[in-house]
Amino acid sequence: MTEETKNGAVDERPSEKQRGPVVERRDRKDDRTTTTDQRLLDSRGPSDWVHTDPWRVLRIQAEFVEGFGALAEVPAAVTVFGSARTGRDHPEYQTGRDLGAALAEAGFAAITGGGPGAMEAVNRGCSEAGGFSIGLGIELPFEQGLNPWVDLGVNFRYFFVRKTMFIKYSQAFICLPGGFGTLDELFEALTLVQTKKVTKFPVVLFGTEYWQGLYDWVQSSVLAGGKVGEKDLALLHLTDDIDDAVRVVKDAHKAWADSH
């Protein structure tokens, strides 16, 4: 296909086909004669299409809509991360219950991943204290489900949608001892705060015996190597005291509220 430009020159354009916002040219051009509407209304073929990437986009969109709708009117909240493997007879379980109760008494909803272990402990403590206990679950290849102490629960297929909900509806993160999932959520939060993708909010590492080694490594290797700055390290607050953790959250929330 050729087209004459304003100065009389001929502009050689390859043949193309448009499929909505998508343009296909050369050997990438799809020669199907049916339209999208026709395939939608007429097709009686195999169901493989429900597993294609374009269809997944709609599922992702639906998850965002469901999450935003369910959490839009949640009051000021704090997300608490921690291990699903923490047993009910472990001291960290009782710490989680006490922390959940303290957050409720301070007027904060408690958000967790909705699973067992430390997450259950925080949800339980918050619910027992009359607070708003929230669980954001995730579809996993093994059975888990939301713990019984969740007052409002939303289950997600996609980790990145779930992470968006943790960030969007929290005023602070508190990390109890946990594994790879907790570390992933911790460093994602720090990255978003560091790069100012979200309004600065505190990240509390609860349990100095557990977290001190990680903090020392960041200080002695990452900071010393010039990979982060002093102000980046200051984003982390280590404590063993529940009142101290809640104070950090309250101070940060007040500072945020005063500036809005």
What do you see in this structure?
With 260 residues, the chain is of the alpha/beta class. The protein has one domain (65-258): Rossmann fold (3-Layer(aba) Sandwich), CATH 3.40.50.450. 44% of the residues lie in helices and 17% in strands. The protein is built from nine helices and eleven strands. The strands form three sheets. The protein has a seven-stranded parallel β-sheet, sandwiched between helices. A two-stranded antiparallel sheet has the order 1-2. Strand 1 (2-4) and strand 2 form a beta hairpin. Helix 3 packs parallel to helix 4. It starts with a strand and ends with a helix. One of its GO terms (molecular function) is cytokinin riboside 5'-monophosphate phosphoribohydrolase activity. Belongs to the LOG family.
Brief sketch in words of this structure:
InterPro entries: LOG, LOG_fam, LOG_family_nucleotidases. Helix content is 44%, strand content 17%.
- Multimeric state of these chains? single chain
**So what's the CATH class?**
Alpha Beta
- Counted by DSSP, the helix tally is 9
Low-confidence stretches: none
Helix content: 40-55%
**Major sheet, described briefly?**
7 strands, parallel
Structural class: alpha/beta
The counted number of beta strands is 11
Strand content: 15-25%
Note the run of SSEs as H and E: EEEEHHEHEHEEHEHEHHEH
How far the N terminus sits from the C terminus, by CA atoms, comes to 57 Å
Based on CA inertia axes, which overall geometry fits?
A: globular
The count of domains is 1
Can you give the mean pLDDT?
86
Strand order across the biggest sheet? 8-7-6-5-9-10-11
Radius of gyration: 25 Å
Query: Which CATH architecture?
Result: 3-Layer(aba) Sandwich
Q: Under CATH, the topology is which?
A: Rossmann fold
